[in-house]
Write a structure and sequence with these properties.
By secondary structure, the chain is α/β, with parallel strands linked by helices. 33% of the residues lie in helices and 17% in strands.
């Protein structure tokens, strides 16, 4: 498995910088909870108005919240799977901060979702498919990167693990070489 540095750091864009985000190894628990996030993504695919990004939040080895992308369902551009799941947890516990929690998502978080995790004080972000595993339509065109946002946020107490069950997660999405219908390419 690749490390976060291998997955996210592009020396051609910044040859002098080194990734400063703590790197953690992929564990069997990470794979187990990513499989649950994949189930949420599949639920999203089968639910009108939802989409194929799934997320679970885990505290002390237990899933405490789960969700999928609900942008079309809610007519809300911020209703990405991570934000939906963070909101569910906040409502459930009556708190806006989730120290000690791990967020699992089937797709590398976008800039908005990464910053939401920072504000929520999530301790670990674990994701499956990376921006190189899927079509570019799933990400903004300026190539904001979760590791860059975390490195620049001045938080050194958060870990990111990327590429967990990446191939299985990537199967949920259009691949880089695919030609998706134009009406589905909303970020382009």
């Amino acid at each position: 498995m690749a490390t976060i540095g291998q997955l996210l750091y592009d020396p051609e864009n910044d040859p002098a910088a080194a990734p400063a985000v703590p790197v953690a190894e992929i564990t069997p628990e990470d794979e187990r909870f990513m499989r649950l996030a994949i189930e949420e993504a599949r639920r999203g695919l089968s639910t009108p108005g939802c989409a194929e990004v799934g997320c679970v939040i885990v505290v002390n080895g237990a899933v405490v919240a789960s969700g999928c992308n609900e942008v079309e369902l809610r007519h809300d551009p911020t209703a990405h799977a991570e934000v939906v799941t963070l909101r569910k947890l906040g409502e459930q516990i009556g708190e806006p901060e989730f120290r000690g929690a791990t967020l699992y998502c089937t797709l590398q978080p976008c800039g908005m979702c990464t910053v939401a995790c920072l504000w929520a004080k999530i301790s670990r972000i674990v994701y499956g498919a990376t921006r190189t595993d899927v079509h570019s339509m799933y990400f903004d065109t300026r190539h904001f990167d979760a590791a860059d946002l975390i490195r620049d946020s001045f938080r050194d107490d958060i870990e990111i693990v990327g590429g967990v069950l990446a191939e299985e997660c990537a199967q949920l999405y259009y691949r880089p070489e695919d030609n998706p219908p134009a009406e589905e390419q909303k970020n382009q």
